[in-house]
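Quick illustration for those who missed Monday's session on complexes.
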Amino acid sequence: MKIKQVFRITAVSAAIVAMGMATGCRPQTSGSQSVGDAASRVYVAPGEHDEFYNIVSGGFNGQISVVGLPSGRVLKIVPVFSAHPENGYGFSEESKPMLNTSHGYVPWDDLHHIAISTTNGEHDARWAFANGNNTPRIARLNLNTFETEEIIEIPNSAGNHSSPFITENTEYVIAGTRFSVPIGTDEDNDVSIDTYKKNFRGTVSFIKVGNQGDMSLAFQLVTPGVNFDLSRAGKGKSHGWFFFSTYNTEQAHTLLEVNASQRDKDFIMAVNWKKAEEYIKAGEGNLVKARYAHNKLDHNTHTASSTMMEEVLQLDPKLLKDIIYFIPCPKSPHGTDVDPTGEYIVGSGKLAALIPVFSFTKLMKAIEDKDFEGEYDGHPIIRYESALHGVVDKPGLGPLHTEFDGRGNAYTSMFVSSEIVKWDIETLEVLDRTPTFYSIGHLSIPGGPTAKPHGKYMVAYNKITKDRYLPTGPELAHSAQLFDISGDKMQLLLDFPTIGEPHYAEAFPATLIKDKQVKIYRIEDNNHPYVTKGAGNARVERDGNKVHVYMTSIRSHFAPDNIEGVKVGDDVYFHVTNLEQDWDVPHGFAIKGANTAEILIMPGATQTLKWTPDRPGIFPFYCTDFCSALHQEMSGYLRVSPANSTVALKSSLGE
Ligand code: K7E
Ligand code: CUA
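Prediction with dinuclear copper ion bound:
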């Protein structure tokens, strides 16, 4: 969530702002209590490796950072929804299709949440999924290559914030809408905003995940026009169900900070997705027209392709009964979390003074007994008390997100009172609390959302940094804090700055993937249409005003390294194949005046930089990645002649 919204003063939020100022932004203690043996517990000696991989969302940078825990060291930035000049993602011809959407090329998004793949509810860490909020998309990263392999756009959605969430066996990744919008044809959608209640709808999308990770949009449920927020799949006994938090059940379309906070309770929407599957098997649902891009990287050609999809299967749970139930939940819930057993469902109402915990067993009984207290937009509302296990009383202010340690404890982040509260899932008793510096959003325990948390550590992702680090002008790095949660009391071990604005993160033991890492791509397997296998095949070819440069790179030269006969106005394609078959030897390629980024080519791969020279002259090109003692020598010249020139096209190396 964005702090600016919470801190804007209105009648409704003034009191909360006051509380936030008093307790959130200016905690009494400095928090510098982390001394002594804490230092040794986060110390990873030179040459040693971290115990956990932490996959951290970058928020408004549209990327993911990979951080080692407990050290907090940044290991890699993986570009996902944002073009990345560092390696040419979104600039190279091969990667541009990955950022294609029904709106065309969209090289930025706002990435908030991570979902690591699971089997039987436990991390298998084959893939990481992440959401793009602004132009609704879900991405899949391969955790053996740390590359974005696939992006699927979500039609009939706006503000894909409630996303992505994973079911127990990675059957689906699931995405809900933040902004309800009209969901008809483009022409139908041109309606007055004040017809919100009549025309605006939410959707929740179920994206099937295949054995190789491949995503396809299986179906969408059309829902009332509420705003969905953070959500979780059931697991164990609640497998087959899904729990969405909702706010703005008032269905306001203006001044939401007041108008969406009227009701005492919003809802958790419980979805029986197995029931939805039954309906689909029985032939229910409507295929409706929808335009959305599905982009995939092919490792054989090192090239992404984009396919425009045309329809989606929609189910209307108003007609198809027993899919959707609403559970009242105070007040504007931001997160719904399910404990490792699948029995307890925790609602975190960001404006509520308590944390309600629902029981799946009681919920099922209430449904069986039709223990309802009316309807919301045609869907049954379950009686609050009937589904309630109990409440955590006075936990703190502004509960947002809850994670679990697998030892019967829950940990909830409190944005307004700027603290983490530890409580017992059964007894609901508060066991411990610790301040965070400052204004925590998400917290993350390794395996925290799974059936088998790895426990040990917890990371707080804080929205406000203030005085934690050396100041860097108006904008400060966001701040994470690592806690030891192995004992009864949470203990602060480390502060570390982060990349972008992290929201959610997931961590898992390094042993799950560290020995499976891809080190090179086999050159024999490279089926790129413009691959050059061996420097002897390097050449230049003209096709009208297109010039294809079949180029190789190996320590420490490009072949060819002298090129003549290119003319102003030509489109020059440098197809660079890195012939290296050694780990950790990429080569880069850049040429003077190119209106794009470099390309960084992994061992055995081919990447293409397109360049349209705008003037005659001599243009040097060079390798950008320090690859050997003769890296500075890894360079070449390209001559550009006027458009009407008769200079013959030729290339050479060593002549
Ligand atoms: Cu709470 Cu976007 Cu997950 Cu941020 S959201 S904190
Ligand atoms: Cu290749 Cu530097």
